[in-house]
Amino acid sequence: xxxxxxxxxxxxxxxxxxxxFDSDQISRRSFRYLLTKGKAETWLDEESGxxxxxxxxxxxSGTSSARLYSIAVQPxxxxxxxxxxLIRKIEETSLEKDFxxxxxxxxxxxxxxxxxxxxxxxxxxxxxxxxxxxxMDAQRFEKLLAxxxxxxxxxxxxxxxxxxxxxxxxxxxxxxHALEPRFELDRKTELRIWREATTIFMTSGHGGCGPYGLAxxxxxxxxxxxxxVNDEGPLFLDSVRDPEKKEVxxxxxxxxxxEIDKLGITVHHGxxxxxxxxxxxxxxxxPVVLISMYKMINMKxxxxxxxxxxxxxxxxxxxxxxxxxxxxxxxxxSPILQKDFERMARYGKSSQKxxxxxxxxxx
Length: 363
Hints:
- The radius of gyration is 23 Å and the shape is elongated.
- It is 33% helix and 26% strand.
- It is of the alpha+beta class and 363 residues long.
């Protein structure tokens, strides 16, 4: 029988964990967190009060991609189809919550598990070096849980930001490369665009890039760009307290606006909904959109992503930010419900919104 786990199952889960794995074991504290506070579900296969297997799925609120975090079956119960039933249940519950991709990692030397995943329709997407405690590599797999979806995706090579404050340059670089493959994706270009586009956004570290500076950097590289902001005044002022810093921000953006007017960049004051972004995308533009990182990783910071596709329900994007917990494969063509993205695409107390639509120059 399959059922969701609860706190009364802690002892049984720990016993199954220790008999299933010699290393990389989930601790009691972690199990408790996953069962009570984590964005996760744990399902059990139980017979006569005995836990024969479990599977844990994690839900990322910033995308519609779920992750099979761990799965274990008692040694004496293997070969009875328990793992397959648990995986199918995880797929079912993920899809019910509008998560349309399921990703997982498995030891590179665990060929029986890899064969099972491939039998169930999972595809190998990358090798993760030294993923486990004993330095064994992991094979990462992915499955589209809604094969009826046929997203219209742009071919956008991925480039991850190399510094905490260069998401804007990384995003516009991906857009320009998608439109013109001869455009170089390298760190020198990333830093050059950052120097040109930074708003001197002074929090505790280096400044990030605002929409005006990024639009200028794109235009100067020979691409057309339309700029959408919902506020006619300077952006991000409510993010700094010091009056002098506010004045610096205001002056920098005022100077950017003057240069934008000289170059003839069109600035629209208003909001772009997901349907509007889809229309611009279908016309050949590549949207780069300002979001808040809070919905993704609980960090209150402005952040830039690039839109890479749409279907009737979902929007797909590349996120230039990666770390140990978010490898590049989790950041490319990430699906999210269009209505959820609209709630994410704003920043700060004043809900500031900004987007660039980058296009090939008119001939």
